[in-house]
Amino acid sequence: MQTLEKVNTIINTIKNNIEKIGRQLRIIEVCGTHTVSIYRNGFHTLFKGYIDFISGPGCPVCVTHEGYIDNLIELAKMNHTIYTFGDLLKVPGKSMSLAEAKAKGAKIKIMYSPVDAVENIAEDEEAIIAAVGFETTVPAFALSLEKVLEKDLKNVKFACELKTIDQPLKILLKDHIKVDGLILPGHVATILGVDGFKFVEEFGIPSVISGFEKYDILLSLLSLTQSILDNDFTVKNEYKRVVKKEGNTVAIRYIERFFERTDAYFRGLGLIEGGGLRLKSEYSAFSIQLEYDYDSLSNSACRCADVLTGKLKPFECPLFERVCTPQTPKGACMVSQEGSCNAYFRFGKWK
Amino acid sequence: MMRTIRKEHGNGGKQTYELIDNLFKPIFGSEILKSGDDSTVFSLNGMKVGISTDSFVVKPYFFKGGDIGKLSVCGTVNDLAVAGLEPKYITVSFIIEEGFSMDDLEKITKSMKKYADLAKVEVVAGDTKVVEKGAADGIFINTTGLGVARDTQKMPSISRIKGNQVVIVSGDIGRHGACIYSHNEDLGFEDRIESDCGLLLDVISELMQEVDVAYMKDLTRGGLATALNEIAQKSGFDIKVEEEKIPVADEVKALCDILGLDSYYLACEGRFVAIVNGDEKEKAIEILRKYNGFACEIGKVEESREKRVYLSTTFGGTRILDMLYYEMLPRIC
C-alpha cells in the first residue's frame, strides 16, 4: 500500500510538471520494448491528455526489410540451415515470411543465442546465422564468430543485417520529428553507455535512458518531465543499476574487433548512411553477400515511415486493421510484438 | 495465393475461432453447434445431457505434473464439468506413429485409466490407428465425453451472464503452458514448473451445490485472456479485470520474463473462471480456496456491451486484453 502511495505521488508530480510546462508533451520512446511496456502497463491511458507517446525506430525486427527475408529464404532453398531469433519468423518477405517458408519445409531453426547455436551446429549442416539487431545483440554475434574461429568451423556463415541506433535517431531528430523529450533504449545503452547517447544533447532535446519495468518507466518520466521543465538537455540515466557512463567496454571492443560501419536499409525509413554494421573484410569468408534491390522495397500504401516519425497515429494508416494486422503485417510497425502498430492493435491505444 | 493452415489456426486464439466460425460452422450447419461452447448441452428424451470432444497432441508426452494420457481424460472431463454436467462415459481414440514405444503407450494408457477412475467415468468405446513413420508425431489422442446435468434448475449458461457479476479464477494461471515451454526450450526449468493438469470435478461439484454459478469456463489453450474474450464475445458484455489481482506464480513469471511470454495467454489445464452474483462471491471464493489457495476475484462483468476485455493496470491505467493473435507456444495439449 505504501508503494502504491509513492507511485501515486510520482504520477501526480509528473502531471504537475506537465501542467507547469503548459501543454501536452510529445515523447518518443525509441525502443520497441519500451513501447510494449508503456502500452502493457496502461501509461497511455494513465497520462492521457498529458503525454502523447510516439514509437521510434528502435525495434530491430520492425526495421528489418523484406529483401533480407527474401535472401534468407533463397539461401534456405539452397539447402542451408538458417538460424534465427524467433521474432524474425513473422517478418513478411515479398512473397512469404520465414514462418511460411518453414511450414513449407525450409530448414529454419530458432536460436536464443548465436553462441549456443554455433555450439550445436552439426558437421553436415551448411549453417547461416541471421545476424539481426541493434548494438545490444552485436556482441553476441561477435562472440559466436570468435567461437567459429576457435573451432575452425568451415560450415558457418553470417547473414548480417545489423543496425546502429545513432544514425536513424540523428536523421529523425534533424529532419523528421518534433518532440519534447526522448526515452532512450536501456538495452543499447548497456553496451554503448551514457556516452553513446551524448550526441542527442546537440539537438537541444531532453532525454533519459530508461529500464523496462513499469517503475523504471515511471521514474524516467519523472526525470524527463523535470528536464523539460528546466530546459536541461543533459542525457539522464535512470537505469543506473545496469547502464554505466562508459558502457560495456569489453562488448564495445568485441564489436570493434569484428565489425565496421556500413549503410543499411531500414524498413519504413529507407537507406541510412552508416546505419548498419558488417563484418570487417578480414572476416569476409564468414559473411554471406546479400543482394538487395532497394527500389522495390517499399509498400506505397504502407505509412510506416510516417508512424515511425510521429506524423501519423497507427490507426490513421489506411492499411491499419483492414489489411494490416499482426497475422498479415504489411509494414514495419505491425510486424513485431514490439512495433507501435502491433501494440496499438493489441492494447487499444485509441481507447 | 493458396490458403493454407498455419500453426496459429490451432493455438486456441483469434485464428482458431475464425477457422471455426468461417469454415466449420457454415459447412456443418448444425444449430446446436452454433451455440459453440466446449461442451454442447441438449435435451434427449427428456434428459439434459452434454457432449464434448477434444484431441491431444502435446509434446513431450510426459511432463512434470502429468502426461498426454492424464491430459486427454482431464481435458474432456473438465469441459463437461464446467458446463454443469456430471461426466459418465468417455471414448478414446489413438493415432500412433509406427515405432512408438510400447512401454510409453502402456504408461499413457494406465494414466488414462487412473484419471478415468478418479473422475468416475467409464471408457466405453475406442479406436486405434497406426500410421507410417513420419505421418504423425508419436501419439495423438482424441477423447469424447458424455455427461448428464447435475441440476437442471441451476445450469450455468452464457445467457445468465449480466452486468456487475463477479469474475473469479480458481487458481494461479499459466502453469501448464509454462511447464511445456520449459520442457521444450531446455532452459533448466523442467523441474521447477509443475503443470496444473488435473480434474476439476470435486471443486465444481461442491461449488455448484453451494452457489448458483451463472457461468464457468475452463482455461485451456490461449489462457485466461482468450477465455475472457470468448465470454465477452458470446455474452455481449464487457469484462474488466485487475492486473494486481490475477494470480501468477513467481516461477511462471520468471519464465515469461526470460522468454518474452505473456502469462495471460499461457495455457492452463486445471483452472477455470466462474461468474457469480456479487452476493455469492465470498462463499464461492471460500469453496475454491479449499482446493487452491490462489483462487480469488479478478474483476467483474461491466454494464457496457462492446464485447471487450479491459485490464486495469497496477498504476491505474487501462488497456485492452485481447485474444491471442500470434503463435506463442509449442504444442501444449
UniProtKB/TrEMBL annotation, chain A:
Coiled coil: none
UniProt key word Metal-binding: yes
Ranges that cross the membrane: none
UniProt xrefs under InterPro entries: Hyd_form_HypD (IPR002780), HypD_1 (IPR042243), HypD_2_sf (IPR042244)
Pfam families (UniProt xref): HypD (PF01924)
Keywords on record: Iron, Metal-binding
Family: Belongs to the HypD family.
PANTHER family named among the record's database cross-references: HYDROGENASE MATURATION FACTOR HYPD (PTHR30149:SF0), HYDROGENASE PROTEIN ASSEMBLY PROTEIN HYPD (PTHR30149)
Full protein name: Hydrogenase formation protein HypD
